[in-house]
Amino acid sequence: MGDDDERRRIPRTDRLLELPAVARARQRLGEAEIRAIIAERQRAAREGSLPVAEVEPAVERALSAAAASTLRPVLNATGVIVHTNLGRAPLSDAAREAVLAAAGYADIEMDLGTGKRSARGAGAREALLRACPAAEDALIVNNGAAALLLAVTACGPAAPAAPATASAPGQEIVVSRGELVEIGAGFRLPELMETTGARLREVGATNRTHPADYLRALGPATRCVLKVHPSNFRVDGFTSDVGVARLRELLDADEAETGRRIPLVVDLGSGLLAPDPLLPDEPDIDGALRAGADAVIVSGDKLLGGPQAGLLLGRRETIERLRTHPLARAVRSDKLTLAGVEATLRGGRTPVQVALHADPERLRERAEAVATRVSAAADLHLTVVPHDGRVGGGGAPGVPLPGWAVELPEVFATRLRLGTPAVVGRVHQERCLIDLRCVDEEDDEALAEALVEAAQGVRAEARQALDPNGERPLKPYRTR
Questions:
Q1: Which of 27, 93, 313, 429 gets the highest tally of CB atoms within 10 A of its CB?
Q2: Cα–Cα distance between 435 and 169 in angstroms, integer?
Q3: Cα separation, 425 vs 408, whole angstroms
Q4: Cα 451 vs. chain centroid, distance in angstroms?
């Protein structure tokens, strides 16, 4: 490197560490993170992608924008309420406050009155039982998959049973072929259950399963009967299945004949506490328990509207058996989850409930107000179009939630995602649709400002995309 090489003037690390911006950043960032930010800008200068004179300002800008977490808040304008890629259910104000309060020391396993150890998560369990009176007991684990794994591992005939086979005592999980589902990210329930060492005893066909199919499968090797609510799809046409109440009748008859009580485990997934007229085909926890399920499994971060958790509700004997199984310790919930679940149940309406029952006419008024604001500020003509939202997260597949959306060209989508705040809309048929169903009304102004900023950016790009003669944009900026 010669004496005239510009890279010799790259600021040294010790000098950059003395910047006022570094002192301010140390209030929220660790030393390793600060040094990594500095090293990245120095490396860019050495490689020539950053002018040497810009190193110090670039470090200051990066430190000012840096946060301890890479997760960014997002305005969900897709119309999908339980959006897995965006963290599923947004927490209620009550749940957020509870999580923050529990972030320090908290009486998670201590009775402050006696100073002695207490049951973990007693408050969340009590809130669950109050919200679902049909349940005799409840248990909270870290997610829905963990709840299913624990249930099919720990369950088994709980009464004097006929002699089991020597090779496989209680090692079969009886389940309908039509309920062997795969959910997001390639996660397959059959593969999860097979990790328990049990064999899946598949009954019926993909589209039709009858009571007789279950009866033929029950035997000394049966660990439990599992019924799974399909997620993200519906089977229509020539179909039939066996409901929870009918399965209970079959298992009661088997118990009367053999003396064994085979547990009935029902995985509902979405977490609807009680029937909702808006979702007539979505099964609920209360209904499944009253129909005879020994244990019902749901996720806490779907229709319940809470943090990620696996909730198990059911008969006292069944839940106690799960609670005392060694696997329960491996999948137990942390204090933040327990605090969030309890506050979700004891607090007011959750954002999920608000979005689910949003008034379509009010959604139209809000969308038109945003479109008018953006059209005036950015010299555009935006339209508002009908748009159906969705529950998402495997809840109520195929059920439309009538609403409205601001219609934009597809080119807006990327700019909105990379803006501040980040806005995620729905890209469909070369359009970017901004649905306000899941956007808090208090954020409408921030959303409008983000749209104006995106419009200005798109317009600037269009000006730069002139043909060689400078006569017209190569990709004209248009709205419908």
A1: 313
A2: 54
A3: 10
A4: 26
pTM for the whole structure: 0.88
Compute the distance between CA of residue 253 and CA of residue 256 in angstroms, rounded to an integer.
Answer: 5
Crossing angle of helices 144-154 and 316-323, in 10° steps, is: 100
Looking at domain 92-347, its CATH class is: alpha beta
Cβ partners under 8 Å of residue 94, min gap 6: 343, 344, 346, 347, 348
In this structure, the dihedral spanned by the alpha carbons of residues 312, 300, 348 and 439, taken in order and rounded to 10 degrees, is -160
* Residue matched to tokens 């406050």: 97
Per-residue pLDDT of the chain (480 residues; tens, 9 = 90+): 566 788 889 999 999 999 999 999 999 999 999 999 999 999 999 999 999 999 999 999 999 999 999 999 999 999 999 999 999 999 999 999 999 999 999 999 999 999 999 999 999 999 999 999 999 999 999 999 999 999 999 986 654 444 444 344 468 999 999 999 887 667 788 898 888 888 999 999 999 999 999 999 999 999 999 999 886 677 888 889 999 999 999 999 999 999 999 999 999 988 899 999 999 989 999 999 999 999 999 999 999 999 999 999 999 999 999 999 999 999 999 999 999 999 999 999 999 999 999 999 999 999 999 999 999 998 888 999 999 999 998 888 889 999 999 999 999 999 999 999 999 999 999 999 999 999 999 999 999 999 999 999 888 887 776 544 544 443 434 444
Tell me the domain boundaries of the chain.
19-65, 74-83+354-464, 92-347
Residues 128, 334: Cα–Cα separation, whole Å: 17
Distance CA 69, CA 272 (A): 32
Q: How far apart are CA 411 and CA 33, in angstroms?
A: 34
Please name the residues in contact with 449: beta carbons below 8 A apart, sequence gap of 6 or more.
none
The CATH code that applies to domain 74-83+354-464 is: 3.90.1150.110
SS3 443: helix
